[in-house]
Fold this sequence. Notes:
Radius of gyration: 23 Å
Helix content: 25-40%
Strand order of the largest sheet: 5-6-2-1-14-13
Shape: globular
Order of helices and strands: HHHHHEHHEEEHEEEEEHEHEEEE
Amino acid sequence: MRTAGVLAADGGANAAWPGGGWVVWAAGAWAVFLAAHLVLNGRWWFWLLPSLLPPPVFVALPGLLLPLSWATEDLTAAVVAGAALALGARQSGLVPGALVRGKRRPPPPPDGAVRVVSWNTQHWCQSTDPEPFYAFLRGLDADVYLLQEYHHDEFDGTYRLIDDERRLRETFPGHRAVIARGLITLSRLPVAATVETAARRTLRVDLEMPGDGRILATFNVHIPVQLRLISPLRTDFYRAVRTRAADRAREYRGLLGDVAGCPHPALIAGDFNTTAAIGDARRIARLGSDAVALSGRLCPTSWQARPGLRWWRLDWVLTTPGARVHRYRFRDPRGLSDHSVQEVSVSLAEPGHRTLADHRSRHHDEGTHHALPLPGKDRPAGQ
């Protein structure tokens, strides 16, 4: 068996694969990148950019190099590629357990489960016809809607808040709307409370579940996007990345505190603008249990850069003890958004509950004009 040094010495010829010496160099280069990624990811603001790679690359590339190293009979390349494959697997977003858990979903309770959808609407039909947009929303027929980007993009790194309440109430007469911070929670269930949060791009609404009226806390989340779509040759591009890295860190710190301080079982869902390959995935893991294994997908994805390129999962559904997910799936947005719809069925597994008198919360009024303040011209367009 020949090594890369032998390949170089005899002019790059290999008995099994001529010119095979490049495999060990490719494996080594990827190993160096992966080592830097594991060390710097989530610790240096600049690494938000390399971590935007499609997560499947972390297994696809070493997975390709491994058989090539066997074909070239390069043991060094095989060892390096195999180690990179093992170390990068957790960055890939692959969920092997989904192949089993997706077929073993817990049955719903006798009185049924509540259907919840979470969806980033891509600037609330700013570039689409409102008629099919509202028809699609209505057709989802959810008990609870957690909707993000209830605003319009100004295309200068900011967004403009909108007021479409009248149409919302006409379209969903059986739902109560809670609107704040460019987020909407629509619920057929009685709203027990709307609760102030430290996370400034999160809307918490506590709902009374059917049956005994126990409380499910819903956290409608939209973590700021990492970058502005401007030329990377401009200093403003990197300034925005650094600023938004700090914004994201504050949001996650606030959200972790909000969830930890919540006395009720919670459902945390929305657009986290975070993949398994981004360091903030470690913070997401501390929020609650990820429901994605119930989707039955080995490689779940929810966002596409353009049609046909759905390689990233940016949208998550998490639960804390007491909340139980029975079904989880992604639904096609039918061209109305670049994000898929997340749909879950959820119930409460634990019998104990607190009364509203025991639950201290700060309330804010319902509606656009009385929403928690968030100036429209000083926030990034994608939040």
